[in-house]
Each structure stands twice: as structure tokens, then as C-alpha cells.
Design a protein that fits this description.
With about 500 residues, the chain is α/β, with parallel strands linked by helices. Helix content is about 45%, strand content about 20%. The longest helix has 21 residues. The two termini are about 40 Å apart. The structure holds adenosine-5'-diphosphate (ADP) and 6-O-phosphono-beta-D-fructofuranose.
Length: about 500
């Protein structure tokens, strides 16, 4: 495998090993915000991506994606449980999301997390050319920056956290807090979605590592300096805009509205089935609005897309049971023959179908209890070529810092949520147009390429990294070509089936 001057390291690769209907292996675009965001930029940039291909056992041999070389990292079944389902998604994920579910601490998960992080660091060290830049992504790989520095002190190392970083009083619960913080601060630059995260890390570095820390620079006791800052991630705006204006997507949106019974209003939510997304609070709000007669099933239709996620983790399994029970109750109580109160879709969709759904919505309801960014909110805005539609957005999503013209809401306050939904449903079209216009204007200047450019320029201000990126707005069309080459359609069906517990 050739060495690269830019290496990206993320838990997931942009490809996932799905099985075709005939049982043969085929490669599809991986689910999730992180991979779609990075894939859009990197397939046009000479680089190597180190990551997990989604299965267990031996690492597969994968083709290059355009100019992007793929270096898979193998995980055993035990490692998948201890590292991905355990420490990453049952300890760090809930802890970093306000502990909305209690974090679980197991000492053997920590052992596995360390050894898997070490394997990622070794794989990276092998493919990085002398003096290369390495960009490590997200909470799964917090220890990789320090491991990599030990293996290859010549490298320039960046780390970006896609999820929130918790307040010190929550982080202090973590039994391995010192090691985790040291691992992350092995980087030269640590990037976050929001400025508050950098502030939290500065406080912890001072307290736990005796560092001199401000919100943009941490000087460790050995005098090494780590820079920190906020770099809010974005989407491939050009791709979503061009999809949404395709005649086939426009007519599919019309068809969807017809199939929904030509209601006065369509309320849409699109989430991974995750307890951080606030789906249960949202269902309570809808149900009470129906109960109190403030909305009627025949003129207000709710569509909830909830794609299964991390299905072998207990908290995700019980969440799915609770949500499906509640959707069944609401439909049983308020629906009629041919008129469901909630259209609940537990399936993956391709990008064109998502674009059509976004175009169909009168009110897009994005109400996570805590979210690093929430790319769905940005995708909705990008898809609204017609400059119409309302966005109801949680204050606790990173996207709220930028999309200030949304109808902002505290999703924990069910009464406030009900009033905000009604307000968005009844808003004057001129007001909606002004809000949507302002949000679209913001996104135009802040797409995924602008994000990567800002981060890579901060990592290396000589411009040698940022200069390789395509111009803003240029990610879309080429991205589709390479995705097609890899038979990459947005689908998690097989990988979800694989993660499902045996019956
Ligand atoms: P997270 O990273 O927590 O999953 P984001 O909202 O940031 O949340 O990103 C979710 C990504 O997954 C978006 O790009 C969205 O389009 C995609 N997605 C969500 N639901 C589906 C689905 N049913 N089918 C295909 N893609 C989906
Ligand atoms: O955005 C947070 C994140 O954990 C990403 O790292 C990941 O790609 C996405 O959510 C989907 O989660 P998973 O990779 O566990 O399916």
C-alpha cells in the first residue's frame, strides 16, 4: 500500500460491506453524518482513509475511491462488542450527550478500546509518509492522537470531535478520564463543533493534567502546545441542492404528498433511532396536540423516519420497543382507516428519496435532546430550493448556533414544543420565506468544503493541505460519479441486519 501525505482516520470507512440480494458482497455508502460529510471532500483529494469496513473477521481488500486510498482495519466480534458497542457507544456516547441515558462503565471495555485504538494508530503510521498530516475523527478514536505521536513524532496530527464534549462535572465521572484526555491532547489541533466544548476541555486540562489552558490553547507540563477551537461541520450543499432540483425529485415530492392524502400540512422528522434524538418527547407533543384537538389527523400528517442504529446495544433495543409501542398507541387511538396519525418509516432511503421527503415537508421537526451538529437540519435547508417550509430546531443541536432563523425550541419542555410546533405550522409564508432565505444564505458560505478548509488551514497554515480541496460548491457532481462506481447508495439495510442480535 502506498504512503500518503494526508491520512484520515475514522471508525467507519465510507464503504460498508452489504450483501447483494443474491448473497454476493457489494460495497455501499456507509450510513451516518461523519462519513457522508468527509466522503464528499476526500474522494477528490489524494489521501488515504483508515477505518473499519463494518463487519468482523479479516479486513477486506477494498478498491480506491477516486483518488482516495482505503486502508481497512479488522475487528473481531469481541472487539466490536468491547470497543464499538461497549466503550464508544455505551460509555462515551451517553456521557457526551448529557447522560440522557446512564453511561455504563466496564473495565474490560476500556482494555479493548485501548487495543483497538492502538491498532488504528499502527495502521495509520504504516500509510503516512514522512511529515504527513493525519486527521483523526471522533470519540471512537480518542487515544489515537497520543499513540500516533509515540509511534511517529514526525507527523502533524489533528483531531476532530463530531459529538459534543461534556461539561467537566460529567466528564469527571469517567473512570479513565486522565488517560482519555491525554490521548486526545496528543494532537496538535483539537477541533470541536461548538466553542463551549473547547472551554470544557481547557478547564479539564488545567484540573487533571496541570496544564496552562485557555479556550484556544493548552500548554502541557512538558511544554508541548495543543491548539483548540470550534469548526462547525456542514454538508455537501451543492449535492443536496442539485438533487432537490431534479425533475424526478420534484415529481416524487408531489407524489408523496398525494400518497399522504393531500393534507394541509406535513410534519417530517428524520433521525437515526437514537435516544439522543428526542423522538419520545416529540411523540408526546404530537399525541397531546391530537388529544386536545389542536391538530386533526386529516389535515396534519406526521412522517417519522427512524432508521435503526446500534441495534445490539440494550438501550437502543429498548428505545425501539418504546417508540414502536407509542407510535402504535397513537395510531390506534387517533388514526382511521386510510388515515394514519403517524407514518413511521424504519428504513434507509437513498439521497434522492430523502431530498423528495425534505421537499414535501411543511415543517421539519429536528428536536434532539443533545446533538453535536445535526446534519439533517442543514440538509432540509439545502433541499428547499423553493425557499419555503419551516424548521423547528432544538437549542441543544450544534446547528442551532448557525441556523438562528429556525424556530428554536427546548425539546425537554413538552408544552413549549407544542406551542412552537403550532407557531411554525401557522406562520405567515412571507416570514417563512425570510427565515429560509437567511438560513440558505448562511449555508451557501458554510458548506463541507469550507469546513475542511478552515480546519486544515488551522492545522497547517502554509496552505499545503487546504490547497488540495476542491472549491466550495464543487463537491456534489463528482461525488455522485465515484459513489456510483463503488455502487454506493445510501443504505444501511445489510449492515443493520448484521448488527441485529440473533433471534
Ligand atoms: P448522526 O450523525 O447522529 O447520525 P446527523 O443528523 O448529523 O446525525 O446525520 C445523519 C445522516 O444520516 C444524514 O446525512 C442523513 O441524511 C442520514 N440519514 C438519516 N436517516 C436516514 C435514512 N433513513 N436513510 C438514509 N440516510 C439517512
Ligand atoms: O455523528 C456521530 C456518529 O457517531 C458518527 O461518528 C457516526 O458515523 C454516526 O454517528 C453514525 O453512527 P454509527 O457509526 O455508530 O452507525
Amino acid at each position: 500500500m502506498r504512503q500518503s501525505s494526508l491520512v484520515v482516520v475514522a471508525n467507519r470507512l465510507p464503504l460498508d460491506d452489504n450483501a447483494a440480494p443474491d448473497g454476493a458482497c457489494e460495497w455501499r455508502r456507509s450510513p451516518g453524518g461523519l462519513t457522508s460529510a468527509l466522503h464528499a471532500i476526500l474522494e477528490q483529494t489524494p489521501a488515504t482513509w483508515v477505518g473499519w469496513a463494518g463487519g468482523t473477521g479479516r479486513a477486506p481488500i477494498l478498491p480506491d475511491l477516486g483518488s482516495l486510498q482505503i486502508r481497512p482495519v479488522a475487528l473481531s466480534e469481541a472487539e466490536l462488542r468491547g470497543y464499538y458497542e461497549g466503550f464508544a457507544n455505551s460509555t462515551l456516547w451517553p456521557l457526551y450527550h448529557d447522560a440522557v441515558e446512564p453511561p455504563v462503565f466496564h473495565r474490560d471495555w476500556w482494555e479493548t478500546y485501548q487495543s483497538v485504538n492502538h491498532r488504528f494508530a499502527q495502521a495509520t503510521a504504516e500509510v503516512a509518509e514522512p511529515g504527513a498530516a493525519v486527521w483523526v475523527q471522533d470519540y471512537h478514536l480518542s487515544l489515537v492522537p497520543q499513540y500516533l505521536r509515540d509511534l511517529r513524532p514526525d507527523l502533524l496530527i489533528g483531531f476532530f470531535l463530531h459529538v459534543p464534549f461534556p461539561p467537566p462535572e460529567l466528564f469527571m465521572q469517567l473512570p479513565r478520564r486522565v488517560e482519555l484526555l491525554r490521548g486526545m491532547l496528543g494532537a496538535d489541533l483539537v477541533g470541536f463543533q461548538r466553542p463551549q466544548a473547547a472551554h470544557n476541555v481547557a478547564q479539564l486540562a488545567a484540573k487533571l493534567l496541570a496544564a496552562q489552558a485557555t479556550d484556544d490553547q493548552i500548554t502541557l507540563p512538558d511544554a508541548r502546545v495543543v491548539r483548540t477551537g470550534a469548526f462547525p461541520v456542514s454538508i455537501d450543499v451543492a449535492e443536496m441542492q442539485s438533487l432537490a432540483r431534479r425533475p424526478a425529485v420534484v415529481s416524487r415530492a408531489r407524489q408523496l404528498r398525494h400518497d399522504l392524502g393531500e393534507p394541509r400540512r406535513v410534519l417530517l422528522s428524520v433521525d437515526r433511532l437514537d435516544y439522543t434524538k428526542g423522538i419520545e418527547h416529540r411523540l408526546t407533543a404530537y399525541s397531546e396536540l391530537l388529544r386536545d384537538g389542536r391538530i386533526k389527523v386529516r389535515d396534519t400528517v406526521v412522517v417519522q423516519v427512524a432508521v435503526p442504529s446500534r441495534e445490539r446495544v440494550d438501550s437502543y433495543r429498548s428505545l425501539r420497543d418504546r417508540i414502536e409501542g407509542e407510535v402504535g398507541r397513537i395510531n390506534g387511538e387517533y388514526g382511521r382507516v386510510g388515515e394514519a396519525a403517524i407514518h413511521y418509516l424504519n428504513q434507509p432511503f437513498d439521497r434522492a428519496e430523502l431530498a423528495a421527503l425534505y421537499r414535501t415537508a411543511d415543517v421539519m421537526v429536528v428536536t434532539p435532546l443533545r446533538d453535536g451538529m445535526n446534519l439533517v437540519a442543514k440538509e432540509f435547508v439545502a433541499a428547499r430550493e423553493d425557499v419555503a417550509g419551516a424548521l423547528v430546531l432544538s437549542e441543544f443541536a450544534g446547528a442551532a448556533d448557525e441556523l438562528q432563523h429556525a424556530f428554536l425550541v427546548n425539546p425537554h419542555d413538552v408544552d413549549g414544543l407544542k406551542e412552537t410546533l403550532l407557531c411554525a405550522m401557522r406562520a405567515d409564508p412571507a416570514d417563512l420565506r425570510a427565515r429560509m432565505g437567511a438560513m440558505r444564505e448562511h449555508l451557501r458560505g458554510h458548506d463541507i468544503i469550507a469546513w475542511a478548509r478552515a480546519y486544515l488551514t488551522a492545522l497547517d497554515d502554509s496552505g499545503r493541505l487546504a490547497d488540495r480541496l476542491p472549491a466550495s460548491g464543487a463537491a456534489g457532481p463528482k461525488s455522485r460519479g465515484v459513489a456510483a462506481k463503488a455502487r454506493a447508495v445510501a443504505s444501511r439495510s445489510r449492515s443493520v441486519a448484521r448488527r441485529r442480535p440473533p433471534a
